[in-house]
Amino acid sequence: MIKLARSIIGNEEKRAVEAVLDRAFLGMGPEVQAFEKELEDYLGSDRRVLCVNTGTSALHLALQAIGLHAGDEVLVPSLTFVATFQAISATGANPVACDVDEKTWLLDLEDAERRLTAKTKAIVPVHYASEPGNVEKLYQFAKKHGLRVVEDAAHSFGCEYKGRRIGSFGDITCFSFDGIKNITSGEGGAVVTSDPQVIAAVADARLLGVCKDSEKRYRNERSWEFDVTEQGWRYHMSDIMAAIGRVQLRRFESEFRQKRMELASIYRKRLSHSPYLELIPTQGEGIVPFMVPVRIRNDRRDAARAALLQREIEVGIHYKPSHLLSKFGRASEKLPVAEAIYRELLSLPLHPGLSSGDVEEVCQILLGILSSP
Ligand SMILES: Cc1ncc(COP(=O)(O)O)c(C=O)c1O
Q1: 83 CA distance to ligand 1 middle (Å)
Q2: The total number of structural domains that make up the chain
Q3: Please, are residues 250 and 222 in contact by the beta-carbon 8 Å criterion?
């Protein structure tokens, strides 16, 4: 079976976890602090990194920290994993589903502009398939309309925009380190920002709102005489997770980045001339693809999907647009570009455990299926 995605864990990660298992406390401690520091060094500038247990919690805490309330509205592209929408609605705010741009598959700012109201407080762009799109335009839009920006960078750890790492600039960036992302900590996520208020709010809120508990946890201590002033959650990262993440961060630079880029470039070379499919447009340089979504033309998506599965090649559909989900849609709402992409969408296998021969084989089989009568 050629897997669509998988965790790549080796002896180094296993040894790192074993070392933590020998300690007296397995929860959030010095290993999390060390992982945060290494991520901060990796991203550079004046950014603080706060690790949490999932990318969804990272988004939830970031959105809570900017002070969203019930009834506020947040602009978000519909073509995303439902995690983005759930994180917004968890704050009490309403996610306002926006269409995506035909040329980029990313948030369509013109459509977003039409959906602005007096209640709009923030925008959550999604770096779908690792592509950040035109980040400058996005921040100009946010500035013009007085919106906070929480970047859903679940797919784009280690990617660059015009030579700057995603997360090293901007308002707030959230990463996911779940099992199949560019790096994993088993499950996990991080909030990245240089806003001191957001840093303080997220640091407390991840530990049930216990004031200034993070500093104690880093030293394997805890608070006994504490106060709580805000709603908090049990969202912190554990030392076991951080131990995996620290090894993965090193391996990302020495192995994963290059491997993902090489495999994705084979897909581009072999598939980009086919009249039957379209690859997601890429910014190119600096993108470390997390996945390879394509559009399959001529109503042949389902046939291609079935034929690939029959040849033991696992494929996916990332994603059913969130405005089509009962919780988040309005019956009358139409987002034509997101819906058209969804009808044709297929994600092809991509992970650092694949060989170039595996990817060549997927391409050959797919092209064969699509060109058969
Ligand atoms: C676009 C997007 N946002 C958010 C998330 C949430 O991340 P996590 O699974 O770590 O909660 C994901 C996870 O797959 C995602 O793909």
Answers
A1: 6
A2: 2
A3: no
Q: Give the residue from 216, 247, 278 where a domain finishes.
A: 247
Q: Encode pLDDT of 342-359 as tens digits.
A: 999 999 999 999 999 999
CA distance 284 to 132: 11
Cα atoms found within 13 Å of the Cα of residue 277, Cβ hemisphere only = 29
> What tokens does 353 get?
């455990």
Q: Which amino acid is at 106?
A: L
Residue 288 falls inside a structural domain: yes
Confirm whether 6 is domain-assigned.
Answer: no
3-state secondary structure of 16: helix
In the chain, which stretches have pLDDT less than 50?
none
Instruction: Please state, in angstroms and rounded to a whole number, the distance separating the CA atoms of residues 299 and 327.
Output: 28
**pLDDT at position 331:** 72
Q: Which domain holds residue 143?
A: 11-99+106-247
The Å distance, Cα 308 to ligand 1 centre, comes to: 26
- The atom of ligand 1 lying closest to the CA of 127 is 1
CATH number of the domain enclosing 311: 3.90.1150.10
Do 309 and 344 sit in the same domain of this protein?
Answer: yes
Ligand 1 in contact with 293 (CB < 6 A)?
no
pLDDT of residue 373: 78
Q: Which residue is closest in CA terms to ligand 1's atom 8?
A: 55
Q: Could you tell me how many residues make up the chain?
A: 373
Instruction: Determine the distance separating the centroid of ligand 1 and the alpha carbon of 373, expressed in angstroms.
Output: 38
335 lies in the same domain as 367: yes
What pLDDT was estimated at residue 330?
Answer: 78
The answer to whether residues 88 and 189 belong to one domain is yes
Is the CB of residue 151 below 6 angstroms from any atom belonging to ligand 1? no
How high is the pLDDT of residue 309? 96
Both 279 and 192 in a single domain?
Answer: no
Verify whether ligand 1 is closer than 6 Å to residue 176 (CB atom). Answer: yes
- Indicate which CATH number applies to the domain containing 25: 3.40.640.10
